[in-house]
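Example 284, ligand S-adenosylmethionine.
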Amino acid sequence: MADPRQVDADMLSFWNGHGGHTWVERQSHTDLTLAPMTDALLAFAAPRPGEKVLDVGCGCGATTLEFARAVGPGGAVEAIDISAPMLAEGKRRAQAAGIANVAWRQADAATAGLGAYGLLTSAFGLMFFGDPVAAFANLRRAAGPGARMAFVCWRALAENPWMEVPMNAVARHLPPRPKAVPNAPGMFAFADPHYVGQVLAAAGWAPPRLDRLDLDLDIAAGRGLDEAVAQSTKIGAVNSWLRNQPAEVFSAATASLRQALAAHQDGAHVRLPAAMWLVASTPA
Ligand SMILES: C[S@@+](CC[C@H](N)C(=O)[O-])C[C@H]1O[C@@H](n2cnc3c(N)ncnc32)[C@H](O)[C@@H]1O
C-alpha cells in the first residue's frame, strides 16, 4: 500500500506540473469530449438557484461554470483545486464569460478548512486522495444543514473502451507493466461501488446511491482522427506510458494507436463507450 503522504505529494507535483499544464492546453478539446457528462452531472446534482456549492477538484472549471450559471447571482460556487495552472485557467474563463459568483481557491480538499455548503460536487476530482476516508470526512464537515453530495467518477477500465482501446494499442510496444492495484488513488480508484460505499460510510456519509452513466464519448471532439490521436497521447495513462520512451517506440506506438482509433472513426468523430458512476449521498 502506497504511503498516503507520498501519494498526496506526487499528486501535488503532477497537477501543478506536466499534468496540470497539459490539461490547460487540452481543455477545450476535453470539455467538448466530456460535455455529455457535464450535462448528466448537472441533471443528477440538480443545483438550485441561490445555493452555495463546493466544486472539488474543479480543474479548469468546466463544471464549475455550469454550476455557477445554475445557482445564479444569488448563489455562489467555491471552486477548489490543488493545481495552480488549472485554477488560473478556470478563473480566466469565468472572467471571459462574465461569471462573477465563483471563488477560485488553491487548496487540498482533504485537509483545507472549508465553509458550509448546500451541495458538494465534483467531476472526476475525488479519486486522487492519499487517504480518501480522511478527505471525505473533511468534506462531511463542510456539509451545511440539509446538504447533499453528488459527484461523477469512472467505472472500471474494462468498461471504458475510450481509454482501454488506446492503452491496448500502445501496450504491445512497451515492456509489461505492473498490475494495477485495486482502489489505488488515481483515475479508477472508485470503480468498485462497494469500496465507494465503505469509504463514504467510514467518513460519516450515508450509503450512497450509485447510478450507471454510460455514454459514447467523442475523443476527437469533432476535430478528426489526428486530434483524437493527439488527445489520447497527451492526456491520461497513454501519455504517462509514452512520455519517456525513445522516439522510435513513441512513433510505432502512436501508429498502432492511430490504426486502433481509425476503426472507430465516423467522419470528424471517434466515438467510444465510456462508463461512469453518478454518486449521491448525504451526511449520515
Ligand atoms: C481529472 S481532473 C478533473 C478536473 C475537472 N473537474 C474537469 O472535469 O475538467 C482532477 C482534478 O482534481 C484535482 N485534485 C486532485 N487532488 C486534489 C485534492 N486533494 N484537492 C483538490 N483538488 C484535487 C486535480 O488538480 C485536477 O484538477
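Summary: The two ends are 28 Å apart (CA to CA).
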